[in-house]
Design a protein that fits this description.
This protein is α/β, with parallel strands linked by helices and about 100 residues long. The chain has one domain (about 1-95). The chain has three helices and six strands; from the N terminus they run αβββββαβα. The protein has helices at about 1-15, 75-85, 95; strands at about 30-35, 35-40, 45-50, 55-65, 70-75, 90. It starts with a helix and ends with a helix. Bound molecules: zinc ion. Zinc ion (ZN) binds near residues 51 and 54.
Length: about 100
C-alpha cells in the first residue's frame, strides 16, 4: 500500500545502508531500490523507489535532495533510463481499486 511505501522510504532515505533490509510492502522481498533524480543546483528533485522483485514502486515528487547522496541529473535521460526500470506505480488509493 502507498502508505507503507512512504513509511519505508522515510526510513530508507535517512540511512542508505538500510536499503538491504527494506522490505517491499507489495511482495515482502528485500529488493527495494531508490535513487534521487533532480537538479544539483537547487537540490530539488524527485525520489523514485521500486522493488526489483515485483516491479512496483512509487515516485515522490518535489523532495529536497540531501547533500552527499548519489543522484542522477534530471537531464541525464540516459542514466535515468538505464537505472530506473519501468515499474508499476502504486497509487495512493490502490486499496480501493482492489
Ligand atoms: Zn516487491
Amino acid at each position: 500500500m502507498f502508505h507503507d511505501w512512504l513509511r519505508m522510504l522515510a526510513k530508507l532515505v535517512t540511512n542508505d545502508d538500510s536499503t538491504k533490509s527494506a522490505i517491499c510492502p507489495e511482495c515482502g522481498e528485500r529488493s527495494i531500490k531508490f535513487v534521487y533524480v533532480g537538479d544539483r543546483k537547487s537540490s530539488i528533485g524527485c525520489l523514485p523507489a521500486w522493488c526489483e522483485s515485483c516491479n512496483k514502486g512509487i515516485i515522490i515528487s518535489r523532495v529536497g535532495i540531501p547533500q552527499g547522496v548519489r543522484m542522477i541529473d534530471f537531464k541525464d535521460l540516459e542514466s535515468i533510463k538505464k537505472e530506473i526500470p519501468n515499474f508499476i506505480h502504486v497509487a495512493p488509493d490502490s486499496k480501493k481499486n482492489r
